[in-house]
Amino acid sequence: MRYLCIIYGTDAETAHLSPREMDHYVNEHLDYDHALQARGKLVASEALQPAETATVVRMRRDKLSVTDGPFAETSEYLGGFYLVEADSDEEALELAAGIPSARFSSVEVRRVKGSTRGAERTP
Length: 123
Description:
Blueprint: E1 2-9, H1 19-38, E2 42-47, E3 55-60, E4 63-68, E5 77-85, H2 89-97, E6 106-111
Antiparallel strand pairs: 1-5, 1-6, 2-5, 3-4
């Protein structure tokens, strides 16, 4: 089954890191990517540009509206994601817990719709 591990955080959560510590933190993510790939668990992972670089598109009554900036004013923003293959909900949670961002940020785990194998519960 595929699960999306969505990383939400704030700039303040890593602001205390020195440039050297930030490089190490980024490299931890890359190392985790390689470890998941080696286990056949990683489908995709990406870090995102800061929320203020976002553009929001809406279609209302057949009219296009384009707005610069994130969808909502919030202290947390979407920072990146991991799309993983897991044999169970419990394994998906274990994989998410291994994401280095889980130490500072929140990682939301959601099963990809239509991705089922067996009779496991839906998170």
